[in-house]
Design goal:
Elements (H helix, E strand, L loop, with lengths): L6 H23 L9 E5 L7 H5 L6 E6 L2 H10 L6 E5 L10 E7 L7 H14 E12 L3 H13 L2 E11 L3 E10 L1
Parallel strand pairs: 1-2, 1-4, 2-3, 4-5
Antiparallel strand pairs: 5-7, 6-7
Bound molecules: S-adenosylmethionine (SAM).
Length: 183
């Protein structure tokens, strides 16, 4: 469901990015298995907290920052000004071309999406990935019910779990990080 943030929410996120950028967002960006030339999607990019670190890892590739919210996407454009390897899309996963991506990642997004919407979002992301493509997510561990739904949908959409771990993130608490490969 589309939700537009207030100015205060954007400001608080910017402060969190300033103080915890490396320990929270860069730690996730560094987990992505990238060589540097991939076409990568940040699904639900928000103000570009993770994208800021991922873009630096793609000297020969491209990062697509997609968000349903125009206000978050505008904030993302500000965070990432100066980078030339980024495409911004305001919209939904269903807009992505089939087989166009090597990697999709999603940071603290999927748990916020209703089950009925996830039933459309995860197949759309699977369709956009090439065979052998990678899907990485990090979600709060206390969202156990939603995590089970996500795991079921990943399996139903031909993803194989390659790696999974629980990590303690400053301020945010325990989170599940999983890496899947598309069959
Ligand atoms: C909690 S924020 C996380 C933002 C960013 N990934 C981060 O960790 O800083 C969730 C983001 O997902 C976006 N979002 C929620 N549902 C979405 C959907 N169906 N399609 C695209 N973006 C979505 C929201 O607009 C918001 O920017």
């Amino acid at each position: 469901m589309k939700y537009e943030p207030s100015r205060l929410e954007i400001l608080l996120t910017r402060l969190a990015f300033y103080f915890y950028g490396k320990s929270v967002y860069r730690s996730f960006a560094d987990r992505l298995p990238l060589k540097g030339g991939e076409r990568v999607l940040d699904f639900g990019c928000g103000m570009g907290t993770v994208a800021y670190y991922v873009a630096k890892r793609l000297p020969l590739g491209h990062l697509i920052c997609l968000d349903i919210s125009s206000r978050w996407l505008n904030a993302c454009r500000k965070t990432l000004r100066g980078f030339e390897n980024i495409v911004f899309i305001q919209g939904e996963a269903t807009m992505l071309a089939a087989g166009s991506l090597d990697t999709v990642y999603s940071h603290f997004v999927l748990h916020d999406i209703s089950e009925s919407e996830l039933e459309k979002v995860i197949p759309a992301l699977a369709r956009a990935l090439k065979v052998g493509g990678v899907f990485v997510f990090r979600e709060p561990l206390n969202e156990a019910e939603k995590i089970n739904i996500i795991k079921r949908l990943m399996k139903q959409n031909n993803f194989i779990l390659r790696d999974s771990r629980i990590t303690d993130i400053p301020v945010m608490g325990n989170a599940l990080e999983s890496i899947y490969i598309k069959k």
